[in-house]
Protein 1
Amino acid sequence: MTTPTLDASPGVRHITLDAGSVTLSGLLIEPDGPPRATVVALHGGGMSAGYFDGQAHPSTSLLALGASLGYTVLAVDRPGYGHSAAQLPEGATLAEQSAVLHAALDDFAARYDTGAGLFVLAHSYGGKLALTAAADDADDRWLGIDISGCGHRYAARLDQLPTDRRHPGHWTLNWGKLSLYPPNTFRFSTHLVKPMPPRERQEVARWAELFPGVAARVRVPVRLTFAEHETWWHHDEETVADLTARLAAPRVLVDRQPDTGHNISLGWAARAYHLRALGFLEECIAQRESAVPVPARV
């Protein structure tokens, strides 16, 4: 089901996805004509799907940009957020979120044209889910994954994570300098901040333990972006080299995004980052198409 939404970019609609015992909500925009591919956007901890449709400035919306370039863009409220918050009041582990996400995307693919396939663009905690779900993707149906704001070794204290609206996490870690964001970003972003479910928060400390096993099962191309002012994660050359060495992905790229903080998709650098991510998607499409055998002429 889809319905129009207020306080969103033109053409963006609310959508619900049937994942069996759980119903996920999200935001959807489709291009004029058949989509080249479908971008599935996964938000971070203590956020929501609207993170990818920033309203402080037209240049920040991934949904608007993606549709203008011919892609369907589906921003999902992860399990424990949005519609499913009432069904999963304690949240869900990454393994459980992965199973729910796959079921929800099965429902989406059965109802919508996905073009060349699914490409996952994820931020922060959503990056952990993207990697976990890619590792669980037995059919390799994903074209690739693009992750910002997620590493494998924390540089910040875990007690600085968001808990609820009254305790949204360490401000400077999540955002960085005010000048990195358009005016009114924080006024427009108030409704995007959501409570981080308890079970999700409890599993945060286990990421360093979980990552090696997850990384060893990822079989699709991966691109990682670290903001210039990223302070949640260690992202020095040695740490990044260790991270990429653990990924079994056929191709791994690492990029640095200047003039931005952790919440890249809400900052002035959002459009530049999103264009780079969609450029990587085009490379993944070309790679997938070139690997398909061409039928012999008769």
Protein 2
Amino acid sequence: MKKLFHYLSLLNLFDAFVTHYGLKNGLITESNPFMDRAYQADPVLFLLIKLSLSCLLYVFIAFNKVPATVLVKGVTIFASVCYTLVFALHCWWLLFL
């Protein structure tokens, strides 16, 4: 589970900067209404929210409090797969469109 938390945290950070670049240059749009509002309010706020989420995952890792229940494992795997697809889509748009 720690590896998945590391993966999600790093993916979230990479996605934050890729998304910021795409939004700043008008190459992509933010589909998440909450994050779109944050970006529209202030791009730095958008990046701080993303950074905070990654830091939260690392807090769980640092304090050795990564939940190991079947539910948390399932949600973490599902989130990892979905987020990987979203990140790949953002990269695709930025590289090929």
